[in-house]
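Review form for a predicted model. The reviewer records the input and the model, then writes brief findings.
Reviewer: anonymous (R2)
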Amino acid sequence: MCLIIFAYQVHPVYKLIVAANRDEFLQRPTAPAHYWEDQPDILAGRDLEKMGTWMGVTRTGRFAALTNYRDPKEITEGKRSRGELVADALKHKGNVKDYMQSLAGKQDFYPGYNLLAGEGTELYYYSNKGQKLQAVDPGIYGVSNHLLNTEWQKVQKGKEGMSKIINGEQDELVGNLLNMLQNADQAPDELLPNTGVSLEWERRLSPLFIQSENYGTRSSTVMLMADKAIQYVERVFTKEGVSEQQYKMNRSK
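Model under review:
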């Protein structure tokens, strides 16, 4: 994932609402959202190169999602795939807080990342760049390729869009969030971050929805989590067109 916008405990029905875009090189082999054959309680897409994932949920309502921290100077050779963090959080048999706390001793194992994970009434955020475990309070948040709520224009635009949508027409919640994620307007130069890539790439990476010849938004995902049910919708973008997977599950104990 390169953008996660989420509303936590601010909606009267859905305790967690997530709208997220996964940006990746177009040639990287990927499976769309499905129940994993080797972990049938997990619903997620899958990176077929490293067998991890960027976002997923379990039948019990455990949720996890990740974005990369952009630092072109970081040495990544020999480090592990960040996608295993999400997969491991979903597979972890103990308390999700214990799993998140265990990452503090492994910050150098992975390239820079932001990880969200939670279950029930708990949601946590950890970055191996910020190196501080945070219990998420009720509110609307966004994280892209820096730290949580860094005021990049795409994050601010996503948070404002989320607020407007969840306070609007409830029958169109999923569709409106998916449409928001397809906003491809670039930020003006004066609002671009300086992350160490070229000005051309800062412009290209600034929209919510990224498009370029070899790299871009591969999928958009919306998840609505209520006390007893979860709705999970993924829209996949390929050169051949657009496809969509929709799942509804009752939460098991």
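Findings: The domain at 3-247 is CATH 3.60.60.10 (Penicillin V Acylase; Chain A).
Further findings: The CA atoms of residues 3 and 144 lie 4 Å apart.
Recommendation: see findings above.
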